[in-house]
Amino acid sequence: MMEQGSYLKELDSALAFMRTYDDFLVVSHVQPDGDAISSTVVIGWLLEKLGKTFVLINESELPSRLSFLNQFDSIIHYKNAIPERKFDAVISIDCADFKRIGEVSSSFAFGAKLLNIDHHPTNNGFGTVNVIRAEAAATVEILFDLIERAGIACDLDCGTAIYTGLLTDTGGFRYSNTSPRVMEIASQLLALGVSGNELADHLLEKMTRAKLKLLQLALNRLTFSDNQEIGWVYIGKDDLRETGAVPEDLEGIVNYALNVDGVEVGILFKETEDGAVKASIRSAGKANVAAIAQQFGGGGHVRAAGCRLEGSLPASIAVLVEAVRKALV
Question: Which residues, in sequence order, are bridge partners of residue 279?
Fold first, then answer.
């Protein structure tokens, strides 16, 4: 665990970076989740308070369920609107490694300075300045500390975004990363006026009919290893189109494999259009799935990680399930 003094120095370095430059490109990881988008808008909010100019961007299409967040509509979908200029100062948030930035890195100027803020333990510190706090439940937790360190009061827009990131990355405050600090921050945000129950209902309970159809497909394919310790589902490359679902509808499906009694590791395999397979891996605690994902060039957290496998869907399932089996021995 990082010493508090070292962490505060990292926060100070981040603030110095943000005060040194005047114009920023802010990017989070491809296929962004609740924490990534919440972190993006929080950084935008903070830069605005500091009197800076900025562009918020992501390679992927944004999850529409997060459209209630302030500044959501100002986040550029890179593939629809590639910036015409290069940026000398970049802030990367919630990116476990540089590759997770995706094609947006083409908009970095040669020799660009990069502030890397993240909570993934597999982050290798690819920034010019790095704030990496693996014990943080979400990147927004770090940003809450950053805002406090800057001496700026969080308002309702900022608080709603931070609460959203905490809520989604802790599974509604149910996962093991729900620390006393997380609950302390959540309490402060509720006191600020954030509507926790409405956010929980919208983000964790409701689903579209298209997602329901996708979930039905996945559950029909639920498979277990011989010893019942590994469970997995898969989504084919045509399934989203045929059900009318969108990429964000995949979120949470892996938990149906993990939550079966006796299962130690749950996996969601998603076939991509280019013939590869993306895997989301979740652990009940017995296996370090970040270490497993790293074997295939991926990364993440001890209990939640992901990777990309080059090969057919059956071959990818076989090789990853075998790697998990060995890790559970």
Answer: 269, 307
pLDDT of residue 1: 47
In tens, the pLDDT along 274-318 reads 889 999 999 999 999 999 999 999 998 899 999 999 999 999 999
Contact (Cβ atoms closer than 8 angstroms) between residue 269 and residue 316: yes
- The reported pLDDT for the residue numbered 2 is 52
Query: pLDDT tens digits for 116-126?
Result: 999 999 999 99
Which among 111, 121, 76, 116 has a CA at the least distance from the CA of 95?
116
Nearest partner of 143 among 39, 13, 29, judged by Cα: 39
Q: Which two tokens stand for residue 243?
A: 């059900």
- Token pair in block for residue 194: 């954030």
> Is residue 61 a contact partner of residue 85, using CB atoms and an 8 Å limit?
no
| Mean pLDDT to the nearest integer, 2-24 | 93
Tell me which H or E stretch contains 6. helix 4-20
Residue found under tokens 């590994």: 230
Structure tokens at 230: 């590994």
- Tokens matching residue 254: 């892996």
Longest CA pairwise span in the chain (Å) = 59
